[in-house]
């Protein structure tokens, strides 16, 4: 291939938004020569790798915008430490059928059992599959919605919680809400109902949500929409954080 032709192909690739092709053109040609590829095989190779690069770029950009606290996966989760939790149920959720069905997932249990880890892992899997994701604690979401309401931007801010295919709402129940705050949560839940998935974590049973939201009727209305299409995963076990802390104390004691 002449240098003029190579330059023209790189320029065209850049204009088409195919930067990897522009950068890797010589490598493609070398691989095609070594494997004695036909024209269709070479075209298939180029298009497949461009798609893989584009998907990886989209995935990394999605994670960057998601506000996830970390990017842990289910492979990082120690199911052996939570023997009452059925790994098959969690791995079934990782197939993302609940996202396709615009259903929800509720992870319930005491602090430290790995609820947030699983919620994040499911969100990461959804992002890799091409779904938009966003992470927030309940307290942060309420705080931002209240500020937007005070500034006359509530509808715009609500949209940021309605737009993603998967919204992760962490730490439901750690702080009780006032009725006006609970009403903002109700607006998010009701507007996402059957339009997008929610993954939430909570240290409270559903029977305690009346206390969390400061109003039994409002809590019932939230639960009615949330649980209509929802997989509930209780995690009743020991705290990972406490386990790690106790191990550190034991190590320090042994050294002493």
Automatic annotation (TrEMBL):
Pfam families in alphabetical order: IstB_IS21
SUPFAM superfamilies: P-loop containing nucleoside triphosphate hydrolases
Keywords: ATP-binding, Nucleotide-binding
Domain AAA+ ATPase span(s) in chain numbering: 101-234
SMART domains found in the cross-reference section: AAA (SM00382)
Superkingdom of the source species: Bacteria
InterPro entries (alphabetical): AAA+_ATPase, DNAC/IstB-like, IstB, IstB_ATP-bd, P-loop_NTPase
Family: Belongs to the IS21/IS1162 putative ATP-binding protein family.
Protein name: ATPase AAA
Lineage, top ranks: Bacteria, Bacillati, Actinomycetota, Actinomycetes, Kitasatosporales
């Amino acid at each position: 291939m002449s240098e003029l032709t190579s330059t023209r192909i790189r320029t065209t690739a850049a204009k088409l938004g195919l930067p990897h092709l522009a950068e890797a053109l010589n490598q493609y040609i070398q691989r095609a020569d070594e494997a004695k590829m036909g024209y269709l095989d070479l075209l298939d190779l180029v298009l497949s790798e461009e798609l893989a690069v584009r998907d990886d770029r989209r995935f990394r950009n999605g994670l960057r915008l998601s506000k996830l606290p970390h990017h842990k996966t289910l492979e990082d989760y120690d199911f052996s430490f939570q023997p009452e939790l059925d790994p098959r149920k969690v791995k079934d959720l990782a197939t993302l059928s609940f996202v396709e069905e615009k259903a929800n997932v509720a992870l319930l249990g005491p602090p430290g059992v790995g609820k947030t880890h699983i919620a994040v892992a499911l969100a990461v899997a959804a992002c890799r599959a091409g779904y938009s994701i966003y992470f927030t604690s309940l307290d942060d979401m309420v705080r931002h919605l209240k500020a937007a309401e005070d500034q006359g931007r509530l509808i715009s801010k609500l949209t940021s919680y309605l737009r993603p295919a998967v919204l992760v709402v962490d730490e439901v129940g750690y702080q009780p809400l006032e009725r006006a705050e609970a009403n903002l949560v109700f607006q998010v839940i009701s507007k996402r109902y059957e339009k997008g998935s929610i993954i939430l974590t909570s240290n409270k049973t559903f029977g305690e949500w009346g206390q969390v939201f400061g109003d039994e009727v409002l809590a019932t209305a939230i639960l009615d929409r949330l649980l209509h299409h929802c997989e509930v995963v209780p995690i009743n076990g020991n705290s990972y954080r406490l386990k790690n802390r106790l191990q550190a104390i034991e190590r320090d004691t042994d050294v002493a």
